[in-house]
From TrEMBL:
Cofactor(s) required, per the database record: pyridoxal 5'-phosphate
Pfam family, one: Aminotran_5
GO function term, MF aspect, one: cysteine desulfurase activity
Stored InterPro entries: Aminotrans_V_dom, Aminotrans_V_PyrdxlP_BS, PyrdxlP-dep_Trfase, PyrdxlP-dep_Trfase_major, PyrdxlP-dep_Trfase_small
Residue ranges of every copy of the Aminotransferase class V domain listed in the record: 37-395
Gene: csd_1
This protein's UniProt keywords: Pyridoxal phosphate
Taxonomic superkingdom: Bacteria
Lineage of source species: Bacteria, Bacillati, Actinomycetota, Actinomycetes, Kitasatosporales
Family of the protein in this entry: Belongs to the class-V pyridoxal-phosphate-dependent aminotransferase family. Csd subfamily.
Protein name: Cysteine desulfurase
Catalytic activity: (sulfur carrier)-H + L-cysteine = (sulfur carrier)-SH + L-alanine
Record keyword RNA-binding present: no
Amino acid sequence: MTDVAADHAGDLAELASWQRGLRAQFPIVHGHPSLAYLDSAATAQKPQAVLDAVQDYLTRSNANAGRGSYPWANTTTALVEGARERVKEFLGDPRPERSQVHFTSGTTEGLRTLARDWLADLLNDGDEIVVPFADHQANLSPWLEARDLLARQGVRVRVRELPRQAGSGDYDPRVLGRITGPRTRFVAATHVHHVFGVDMNVHRIRRVVGPDVPICLDAAQSVGHLPVSVADLDVDFVVFSGHKAMALPGTGAVWARQQRGPAFRPGGWSGTPNTVGIVSLAAALDWLDGAGTGRIERWTVALTARLTEGLHRMPAYEVLGCRSSLPAASAVQRRSSIVTFRHRGIDAQDLGFVLFSRGFMVRSDGHCQAGAEDREGSVRVSLHVHNTPEEVEELLSVLASLQ
């Protein structure tokens, strides 16, 4: 066994007892032992601590935030404001006194809010922005909408495609350096790709564009799955969904550094916040910190390494993303929790139905992918801390029987 493969096997062995204790904290997983939930990139399951926090809030102090002076309302207001600080702490914010957290319904709304209420104030006629054309649709459409809105006001903004390397799917800093210049005002990027499952190395973008260009990071597939440090990434916005980070659906957050460009202040009347969702988000971040996002990443990387190695040995399957990262001996960066593939003879939707009949819940469609790849379906397996090596081995056995 190579050193790299031994490292992954060693992580699974070292963390096995820790993982069993965490898996037992997911009622829906523990209550359905014959099913394997492999769709955490779409929405994550909730640990008991999050469910308890929601139940406690709804039965003890449920009220509106910032709308009353009685104790329940005051408690709710304090919970919401405390959750803002909790997000900053979770992201390793080096200057929390200066930054801002705005709660949204999820990543999509957060990105659209930035495009509508912040980006338009940054740009002038002739400026350029760089955005991903082959990531999630939610990280492309808002920027194009902002361009079109400005065009109707007589402000012409050029949208450039964030370049990618052909072989790996990673961003290409060398090409980025050639297409950016003094009129580059903004860059949007993705932290972990929702189809390829790899860290897109966004820290290299700052080195290319310099110290003054704001960078917005779609962190929907990284927050809750691996350590995220805004101090290390040096980005200006981090946008993520609560439901992918073990909180309830309908909540998310925009973290804004407030150091480059105009200050981020969402427009319009904010209305009633999703207080129960925000409570669940704070509880989820507490749970994730207790579990250790670094250990969660080690566990899921080891599981995906085993899955990609097994698929690599089956000629009937094409794994999307960097081919050189598939063997267990590869030193190339591994997928953190997502493996997406196609069967060369079975339609993705049909394969998804077959897998569910064998107890595996996966996603099988275009995965909201922007660009031409959206037209062709594939099967996405997305793992989290509650998944086991046994589930991966059984999945590989079923897939092998379909060759």
